[in-house]
Each structure stands twice: as C-alpha cells, then as structure tokens.
Amino acid sequence: MTTKRTGRSAAKSDSSLHPLVLVLHGPNLNLLGSREPKHYGLATLDDVNRALVGRGDAAGARIETFQHNHEGGLIDRVHQAARDQVDFIIINPAGYTHTSVALRDALAATAIPFIEVHLSNIYAREPFRHHSYFSDLAVGVISGLGAYSYELALEYALRHLQNRNSHGSQKTEKAH
Ligand code: DQA
C-alpha cells in the first residue's frame, strides 16, 4: 500500500481555491513498470503519481494518491475521502473493476464524482474484463491510453472543478 498527501496543504476550507482530487489505484498497480508491460507499459506507479501531482500543483489543485491491494483498504479510503471533503476521485479499480460490488457501493455512498480509468483497453481483452461494476456510476471512463488515461482524467477533473467554482455552485454533484 502507498499513500501520499501532496501538493498544497490539505485544509478543508481551501476547497474552492485549491480543490482536492484523490487518485485511487487498485490491486497490483504497485507493480507497474514490471507487470505485463505489453498491457500496462513501462511507467512505474511513482512516475504516474509524480506526473499527476505536478499537473495538479501547476493548476493549484491538491492531489492525493493511494494504492492498496485489498478491497477493504480501498473502501476505507473512499469513506475517508467523504470525511475529507474530496472534490473528485480518479480511480483505477484494477481487478476489482470486474468483481467488487462493495467498492462500487462505497463510491455510490459518498456521491463524490469520479472517473474510472484503465491503462489497457479492457474491451480489447478477455471477455471477463468487459464488464465493470463502476462505469454506470462514473462521470466518464477512459480506457486503453496507458498512463495518459490518468492525465486526461485529471484534465477533465480540473476543468470541471474550475467551472464549478467560477459558477459559485456548491458540491451538489452526485454519483448515482
Ligand atoms: C486494469 C485492467 C484490469 O482488467 C486489470 O485487472 C488491472 C488493470 C488497467 O488499468 O488496464 O489490474 O484496470
């Protein structure tokens, strides 16, 4: 498991000035760089996280990253995200994409908007990867663009949060 709080300091009252984005990585993604590079590329998890934190910093956003190999660890982190008033979640549920009703339920319970990302194109792989327990709750799904999948998700999140703040609206957006 790795967890990192990075970027600007994470005071809750900072939310509209410096929105808080949580990036969640599911099981086995700690092995990125050496794990099945033909599917997942050569970038390590640290490389992926570093790029996201750098982009967040440039945009004035706070980025937290968290990887866990166990379902319960990810669920607990989603619950904590609600307490921390996280504004947006980017999640690669990895193998739990195709199995975890419980992680889905956690995201639904918090109602924090999220994007589901995958490094590989799950629709071009084995049939059991074609179903996701998350996609119908997600704001969007990005699959198959390698580490760029995360970067594009963050671009969307930053723009979305900027628009929300410039329109002065509150956190009313919900996962279904
Ligand atoms: C993955 C795709 C999943 O099917 C797989 O179990 C993973 C990674 C991806 O990023 O492509 O662990 O989510």
Q: Which molecules are bound in this entry?
A: 1,3,4-trihydroxy-5-OXO-cyclohexanecarboxylic acid
CATH fourth-tier homologous superfamily: Dehydroquinase, class II
What average pLDDT do the residues reach? 90
The CATH C-level class name: Alpha Beta
Largest sheet: 6 strands, mixed
Question: Which structural class matches the secondary elements?
Answer: alpha/beta
CATH architecture: 3-Layer(aba) Sandwich
Radius of gyration: 15 Å
Low-pLDDT stretches are 7-13, 170-176
Which shape, going by the Cα principal axes? globular
Total beta strands = 6
Please provide a written account of the structure.
By secondary structure, this protein is α/β, with parallel strands linked by helices. It has one domain: Rossmann fold, CATH 3.40.50.9100. 35% of the residues lie in helices and 17% in strands. The protein is built from five helices and six strands, in the order ββααβαβαββα. It has a six-stranded mixed beta sheet, sandwiched between helices. Helix 2 packs parallel to helix 5 and helix 3 packs parallel to helix 4. The C terminus is likely disordered. The site of 1,3,4-trihydroxy-5-OXO-cyclohexanecarboxylic acid has 10 residues, from loops.
Task: Give a topology summary.
Layout: E1 2-5, E2 20-25, H1 37-40, H2 45-59, E3 62-67, H3 71-83, E4 88-92, H4 101-110, E5 114-118, E6 140-143, H5 148-166
Parallel strand pairs: 2-3, 2-4, 4-5, 5-6
Antiparallel strand pairs: 1-3
1,3,4-trihydroxy-5-OXO-cyclohexanecarboxylic acid (DQA) binds at residues 28, 92, 94-95, 97, 118-120, 122, 129.
